[in-house]
Every structure is written in structure tokens, then in C-alpha cells.
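hiii, so i know i said id send this last week but things got crazy w the move. better late than never?? heres the sequnce for the chain we talked about at the cafe, plus the structure i predicted for it. fair warning i was half asleep when i ran it
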Amino acid sequence: MIRVLLADDEHLIRGALASLLGLEDDIDVVAQAGTGDEALAMAVAHRPDVAVLDLRMPVLDGVVVAERLRDTLPGCASMIVTSHAGPGALKRALSVGVRGFVPKTVSARELARIIRTVHTGSRYIDQELAADAIAAGESPLTPREAELLAYAEDGAPVSDIASRASLSAGTVRNYLSAAAAKLGAENRHVAARIARERGWL
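okay and structure toks below
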């Protein structure tokens, strides 16, 4: 059996997907999560073979979760399922070892096939998302800069961002200033908007 963790902040979608995957003879959904930090905790507790992660989740996004799973559970293959991926998101995902990257428009049967593919150590990237990523160009942001800009998108103060990222406020300011300079933005909020529009968050 392939042990699967499903992480998506939309409860209805997550529940429906768990039910449909549960019909497959060789797939067992062993845990579900609604936020990135919950996904990490569930992964450590249940040790899945494959983590199916929504790109955008509260607290930590799917790419950050995949990066941390790579370090804490190297035997767990991560894949991203998303309804709104900019091309930069695919590049970020690949840079942290994500094995699959698919749109939420994929059928449950196709998703089951892709889970089997990544479980064997192969990679599956949706062709249209891959073509968009090639056309978009490289992000100048480091993974940490992108993570902190994502936290800054909703206007959170530096102290809140520092708390969420487990960094000092000064370190966060330095990262955000560097990111804004790279994007030619006057502040972190504009930088976050630019990065989102270009698909780098």
C-alpha cells in the first residue's frame, strides 16, 4: 500500500479527494491536514510515502512544507496540487525536490496514477505548467526571500513575519530589503505584489 498524506485548506476538496483515493486498491490516505504546519506534524506522526500538498495553505505553503519534509522525512515523496500556480512556483518546487506538480483540474484517477509515479521515484510535471515556467524566466529571489515576501503579502508587520518564520526582526528586515531591491520595489508590500504577479511566490 502507498501511504498518502493529503494537505489542503479547503475541507470539502480534501475530503472528496480522500474518499476517491480511498477507492484505489493500493492507496491508503493515512492523514489529512488543513494547514502547512499541521501537514508537517501529521507527516512526522504517520510517516507517509507520498505527501500531496496544496500550493497555498495557511501558515506554510506547500513548497515550504515539501522542503522541510525533504529534510525530516527523506523517504516521503512530495507533490504539489494547485489551482493557481504562477510559473515561478514550479521552479521553487523543483528546487526543493518536489516530485510532482499538477493542477487541481486533474481527475482523481489521474492523480492516483501520478501518486504511483512519484512513489516509484519518478517525476511528473504537468506539461502546460512546465511550458509556462520555461517562458517566465528565473526568479532573482532566494527561497527564504520568497517565503518572507509571501508572509508580507497580507500587510503583516515585521514582528509577526519574524515570529512565523522563527527569525529575528532584524534578519527579516534584511531579507525583505534585499528582495525589494532585487525587484526594484519601494517597499516589501510592492515587492510581494510584483513577485506574485510574476509567478515567483
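btw Residues 180 and 190 are 8 Å apart (CA to CA). thought thatd interest u
miss u guys!!
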